[in-house]
Every structure is written in C-alpha cells, then in structure tokens.
C-alpha cells in the first residue's frame, strides 16, 4: 500500500514540435492539497487534464492509488473534476444536476439521496436543491459544480481554476469554504490556479511551473522565504520581490554606494562565491523611519509614487535605476517626492547567481 495518492513518472506531452510537458515527475501524498501554480501557458492545466484522462500523454505514466491509469478512461480513474465554467444543465434543478451522473451509473436511489443530501449539507446548498441554475448566483453555481464532483465519492478531486469567474469577495469566501471542505473530507485535492493568494492560502505544497517544468515543489512557507531561483522569487509575492544587481565580495554585497553584510550563507563552503550577484528583497521586509536606523543595512530612496491600500501603503521608488517597491504601514504619512530612510535585514534577503539566476 502506498501513501502516494497520485504519482506522475517521466511525463511528456508534445503537440507536434511544441513540448508542453517535459520529463515531469511528481508524487502527491494521500490527503494532500497540492496547488499547480504558474502563468498562462506553463502547462499546469495540461498536467491536470493528463491526470484526469482528458489528454493522452506522449510518454510517461500516471498512477492513482497505486494503479496505472495512464490509458484508462476518465470514468475509471476514481476522480472528481471541477472546471472553471460551471457546466450545469440549465433545465435541471440543483438536485437533478447533483444526481445526474449517479443515475447514469445506476447507483441505487437510496444511495443517490444519501450522497446528494451529504454534499448539499457540506456545501450549505440545501435550500437551493429545488432551484434551477438560472436562479442561482455565481458563487452558488460553483458550489453546485463542486457538489457534483463531491457526490461521486472519489479519492482524488481535480480543480481547474474553479474560482476565476467569480468576483473578489466571492472568491475569498469560497476559498475559505474549499479549505474547510478539505479539512472535513481529507481527500487528495489537486488545484490549478494562476492566483498566488489562492495557492498560498490553500496548499499544503505548491508546484510552481514554467515551460512544462516544475521549478520548485515545496510548502508555501519555503517557497516564499527560500525561492530556488529568480523566477520563483519574482512570481511569488504581491508586489513582487525587488532585485538589485551588484557584486559579492567576501560575504559582503555591494551595489553602488549600498553595502550589506550577508547572513545565512556558508561562504566558506563555496555556496556563495565572489562575483556578480543579484540581491532579492521583498517589499514587506523593508523597514522605514526610526526603525531603519537600527538595521544592519540602510539606504535612502525617493518616494516617486504613493499607493494607499488601507492597512498598507505601497511606495514606488528606484535603486540603481531599477524599480524598487516598499510596503509600509498604512498609518505612516508619506508624500510623493519625500526622501525615505530604509533598513534591510540581510537574513531575509535572497541571493541569486547573475548568470544562472539560481539561488546561491
């Protein structure tokens, strides 16, 4: 018996000369909430469709619960899938939509009623069972679409950007409900999104994809604090990480007049050698005002643009003629054109090799 719910081995998918997935390997643990995250065209939905059986891989194998399902039909894989579009039958009631697949599979009536009632209770759509999709809001329709997967009583749920058609508040509400649903069911869930907030809040682990490859597979905390390369560092975080090009010499990073003695890097072991380097600094890790004076590394920047965001204020400035963003407390007054003293904790800075863009 394996503790892996889904295993992908050496998976390739080519459309003609275009390589969409390349020698991809992925082990998804039993009961895990794994998020496939990346920009459009990175291969995340393609990978999900291969797991679902909607696309045939060029090479490689897919295992679900230890069974090789590479060439099996979607209905034989023990999966439930929720798409971006609700794809509900408009002429049927919610109850009809939930039970339709079970009736086709000749599931006994008592069992259908039990599963529909359970799904409706979990998703809090019991009052909607007699309504038709046209009388439902977007959030209610998506709940019904999730319920339709839920009644199948499967081991693995696949979600393909299920919240992207909803407005911001509904998306946040349903995100919480999905997390609660996972805690309650403890099924394996594989979730595709381009929204990093969804990924960070929902996932046990995140697989960040680019060009059909997995760049990094780890917990949200590790991916945020220790990105393996500049691409991951830039992709995760809103606003994204600041990058300063400079040189590393005996453990000190220099960029123009700015110097910073690095911490947390084993220079003696040769993991970070002298030469050109890129320092990555998250906007929320920068301190301003009186606090800045006590930090190991300091500099002055000019506030070129001020964006009040309520609890935070986002400051746009420049360092060495490159954009540099600072996220500070929204209660602190800042004027455009003001010179700010800022401080940086080197222990929270990521260093990247200039040529390979890999983490040092």
Please characterize this protein's 3D structure.
With 360 residues, the chain is an alpha+beta fold. It folds into 2 domains: 228 residues, 3-Layer(aba) Sandwich (Rossmann fold); 115 residues, OB fold (Dihydrolipoamide Acetyltransferase, E2P) (Beta Barrel), CATH 2.40.50.140. Helix content is 23%, strand content 35%. It has 8 helices and 21 strands. Strands 6-7-8-3-9-10 form a 6-stranded mixed sheet, with helices on both faces. Strands 13-12-11-14-21 form a 5-stranded antiparallel sheet. The longest helix is centred in the middle third of the chain and has 18 residues. The chain is globular.
User: Number of DSSP strands?
Assistant: 21
Low-pLDDT regions:
none
Average of the residue pLDDT scores: 91
Q: How helical, in percent, are the residues?
A: 10-25%
Question: Taking strands numbered 1, 2, ... along the chain, how are they ordered across the largest sheet?
Answer: 6-7-8-3-9-10
Give the H and E element order: EEEHEEEHHHEHEHEEHHEEEEEEEEEEE
How many structural domains does the protein architecture include?
2
**Shape annotation:** globular
Total helical elements: 8
Q: Given this structure, which CATH class of the largest domain is correct? A: Alpha Beta
Structural class: alpha+beta
The CATH superfamily of the largest domain is: P-loop containing nucleotide triphosphate hydrolases
Sheet of most strands = 6 strands, mixed
Domain ABC transporter: 6-236
Protein name: ABC transporter ATP-binding protein
Pfam families: ABC_tran, OB_MalK
Keywords: ATP-binding, Nucleotide-binding, Transport
